[in-house]
Amino acid sequence: MNGACLVTISVSHYCEKARWALERAGVPFEEVRHPPVLHIAHAWRAGGRRTVPVLVDEAGRFNDSSAILAHLDESLPEERRLYPSDPELRAEVERWEDRCDEVLGPHVRRFAYGHLLDHPTTPGILSEGVRSRSERVLYRLAKPLVHAMMRKAMRINPPGVARSEAKIQEVFAEVAERIAGRRYLVGERFSAADLSFAALAAPLVVPERYGTRLPELSELPAELLQRVEAFRAHPAGVFALRLYEEER
After folding, report:
1. What is the tens place of the pLDDT at every residue in 116-165?
2. Regarding the domain with residue range 4-80, which homologous superfamily does it belong to in the CATH classification?
3. Residues near 223 by beta carbon (within 8 Å), at least 6 away in sequence
4. Cα separation of the two ends of the chain
5. Binning pLDDT at 50, 70 and 90, where does residue 96 land?
6. Per-residue model confidence (pLDDT) at position 48
């Protein structure tokens, strides 16, 4: 799999999920980062959809973080795979992965952007690692329009952010109940379920080993910092931080 290319928005937690899996698999790859909204044309060219991550390698094009994980798993030895060979365990892993992808991920994104889209650190974070100078300049010039488009697309408004926080609490409660007395969500080893939860919860708990820059805790607005500290202290948040410490 030489010459793999991962198209991303650097701060995206879905892109972090793919980045983590690639690094864990030991696959050499080039990450090509774009600012949000400006990423759309590149995502279309690479994968035929508007969303990232997109992985392009000698085997084809994979335009979904879960598809990327499943693809990478095919080349790993059994003991390193993120999906168990046992059909029942694999189905359980995939159920947790779907729950994280379809519920936790979108609501974490809206919650985080709802609190940070206008924060002074956000322009630098959203353009972190973007190689194209013209894209960096265009993003900064078009920032009001880009952010307005993001608000509209994600329905970022106070009621929406509040609904997202409630959904996050719901998933955190499910995870906390599941991991009581266990080290992992499914079975006896790290799986795609654990990686998906940790990566998609990461903006809420701000792990040190996230694959790109997140705001420092000291940079967060007081209201958000209070919530982040509560997420970090929650059993599910402690679990996510442990996975980053031990597996990332």
Report:
1. 999 999 999 999 999 999 999 999 999 999 999 999 999 999 999 999 99
2. Glutaredoxin (3.40.30.10)
3. 115
4. 21
5. very high
6. 81
How is domain 87-247 classified at the architecture level of CATH? Up-down Bundle (1.20)
- Provide the whole-model pTM: 0.95
Beta-strand runs (E) in 73-208: none
Say how far apart CA 153 and CA 51 lie, in whole Å: 12
Report the distance separating Cα 61 and Cα 152, nearest Å: 29
- Say if CB 240 and CB 202 are below 8 A apart: yes
Where in the sequence of the chain do the CATH 1.20.1050.10 domains occur? 87-247
Report the distance separating Cα 186 and Cα 59, nearest Å. 29
- Which tokens hold the place of 203? 């903006």
Please give the Cα distance from 70 to 81 (Å, whole number).
9
Tokens of 188: 């006896």
For residue 101 the two structure tokens come to 């992808």
Residue 215 CA to residue 112 CA, distance in Å, equals 11
Bridge-based pairing of strands 54-57 and 60-62 is: antiparallel
- Angle, vertex CA 160, rays to CA 159 and CA 166, nearest 5: 90
Torsion of CA 177, 192, 45, 152, to 10 degrees: 10
Kindly report, as residue ranges, where domains of CATH 3.40.30.10 are found in the chain.
4-80
Checking DSSP bridges between strand 4-8 and strand 54-57, what pairing results, if any? antiparallel
> Which amino acid makes up residue 127?
S
Amino acid type, 166: A
What is the edge-to-edge ordering of all strands in the sheet holding 60-62?
29-33, 4-8, 54-57, 60-62
